[in-house]
Amino acid sequence: MERPKIGVGALVLNEGKILLGKRIHAHGVGTWCPPGGHLEFGETPADCAARELEEETGLIAEEIFPGPWTNDIFETEGKHYVSLFMLVNKFQGVLELKEPDKCESWEWFSWDALPSPLFLSLENLVGSGVYNMSDAFL
């Protein structure tokens, strides 16, 4: 029996903006999403978020807090994920495009002016109405 996978997204917040990258690899090509990836066996969601953030952007998380989660069914691709979001309010380093084969670019966006289309997990988070991202910027 097929089971859902666990994805972890790092919601990196800086000066009222969130860091998003445009996907060019795997499912969700052409959509915007936060840094993230699959939770590895024995890894905490915070460790996964920190690892993925550094691997993809070169940024090093200094503060990570648990955030919301979404249940994401990618019907076209036949994939099912539970996505755990981690909030990164403090980081160090210089933003880099470390995996240009997976991501076209990294850009900062205001929560009220997000690009389109969004990766399904982020779209579900935005549309859920159960979490007010503007609170995370406080």
What topology does this entry show?
Layout: E1 5-14, E2 17-23, E3 32-33, E4 36-38, H1 45-57, E5 60-74, E6 79-92, E7 103-110, H2 120-128, H3 133-136
Parallel strand pairs: 1-6
Antiparallel strand pairs: 1-2, 1-4, 2-3, 2-7, 5-6
CATH architecture: Alpha-Beta Complex
CA-based shape: globular
Rg, alpha carbons: 14 Å
Number of domains: 1
Tally of contiguous helical segments: 3
Do you know the CATH topology? Nucleoside Triphosphate Pyrophosphohydrolase
Q: Mind telling me the CATH superfamily name?
A: Nucleoside Triphosphate Pyrophosphohydrolase
Please give the oligomerization state of what you see.
Answer: single chain
Largest sheet composition: 7 strands, mixed
Instruction: Estimate percent helicity.
Output: 10-25%
pLDDT < 50 runs, ≥5 residues: none
Q: How much of the polypeptide forms β-strand, as a percent range?
A: 35-45%
Question: Care to describe what's here?
Answer:
The structure is a single chain. With 138 residues, this protein is α+β, with helices and mostly antiparallel strands. Strands 1, 2, 3, 4, 5, 6 and 7 form a 7-stranded mixed sheet that branches. It is globular, with a radius of gyration of 14 Å. The protein has helices at residues 45-57, 120-128, 133-136, and strands at residues 5-14, 17-23, 32-33, 36-38, 60-74, 79-92, 103-110. The protein has 3 helices and 7 strands. It has one domain (5-132): Nucleoside Triphosphate Pyrophosphohydrolase (Alpha-Beta Complex), CATH 3.90.79. The longest helix is centred in the middle third of the chain and has 13 residues, at 45-57. The model has no long low-confidence stretch (mean pLDDT 93).
